[in-house]
């Protein structure tokens, strides 16, 4: 299957140019001309790399990058019209893998695409795995097992568990969990974290008669093994 690149760029001429060049290199290309549509396409799956313009209508490139990063580690190369260091820092801070100004030569962009894809490919092959006792979470496969037994989790349950396991032994406030798993633009109640914690406890702690998720009264939660 062809490697698929999503180009999110509002300047139609540049988007068209990139599409033609990338097609010529053998990549499949999708184009979005605003941030919102770009984000939707990025989340629709099967995208291998995103070329993301910084200044976009709808959602800014930075915002698109942040939102995509909450859900996926698809490689992102950011483009900007300005050769501005603060833009670069912001772009990389928001989770972009690389950064280029628009005065780039297409050969340079193609070279960077190859580098970023190669780097991600290697990382993907490692299949990052989080462990706590007999509980294993396979990041790329979106799979969780306890003592080899599959645990079926919804997308949000999985993300919450991943966040808890990544912060094993650290007390997490409801607000922190909410920001990380549901996003800063979540308008609901912080109780949603309690509800999902309950789901996870039912599926893991109760199911296997263990205790990983501990309540820290008045603060939030901590993920750790009982015997630790
Ligand atoms: Ca633009």
Fill in the keyword field for this structure.
228 residues, alpha/beta, 5-stranded parallel β-sheet, 4-stranded antiparallel β-sheet, binds calcium ion
Strand element count = 12
Largest sheet: 5 strands, parallel
> Structural class, from helix and strand content?
alpha/beta
Strand content: 15-25%
Topology:
Elements (H helix, E strand, L loop, with lengths): L3 E5 L3 H13 L3 E5 L2 H9 L5 E5 L7 H11 L4 E5 L4 H9 L4 E4 L4 H21 L2 E4 L2 E4 L4 E4 L2 E3 L3 H12 L4 E3 H9 L8 H16 L6 E4 L3 E4 L5
Parallel strand pairs: 1-2, 1-3, 3-4, 4-5
Antiparallel strand pairs: 6-7, 7-8, 8-9, 10-12, 11-12
Helix pairs in contact: 2-3, 6-7, 6-8
The chain binds calcium ion (CA).
The site of calcium ion has 5 residues, from loops.
Characterise the protein shown here.
With 228 residues, the chain is α/β, with parallel strands linked by helices. It has helices at 12-24, 35-43, 61-71, 85-93, 106-126, 155-166, 174-182, 191-206, and strands spanning 4-8, 28-32, 49-53, 76-80, 98-101, 129-132, 135-138, 143-146, 149-151, 171-173, 213-216, 220-223. It has a 5-stranded parallel sheet, sandwiched between helices. Strands 6-7-8-9 form a 4-stranded antiparallel sheet, with helices on one face. A hairpin with a 3-residue loop joins strand 11 (213-216) and strand 12 (220-223). Helix 6 packs across helix 8. The N and C termini lie far apart (46 Å). The model is unreliable at 122-126 (pLDDT under 50). Calcium ion is lined by residues 10-11, 53, 55-56.
